[in-house]
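User: Sorry, what's this?
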Amino acid sequence: MDATRNNLSEAFRGEDGGQYGKLLRQWDDQCAVIQKNLEGMVEALNLSMKQHQQTQASAGEAISRAAASQNAIFQQLNPS
C-alpha cells in the first residue's frame, strides 16, 4: 500500500494525487482494523473449539461411566 501511495505521489503531484493518497491511507487503516478483528475472531473460535473438545471428552467419559454402571447393575439382576 505504501509503495502504491508513493508511486502515485510521484506521478500525481496535484490535489487529486493527495486525495488519492489520503484515501489509500484510510483504506490501509481500515484494513488494519479488519485484520485485528479477524485475529480476535480466530482466537475466539480456537477457544470455542478447545472448550467444545473438552465438553465432548467429558460427555464421552460420563457415557462410559454410565455404561459401566448399567452393565454392573444388569449383571447383578441377571447372574446367569
In short: The chain is about 90% helix and 0% strand. The first helix runs from residue 2 to 11. The radius of gyration is 30 Å.
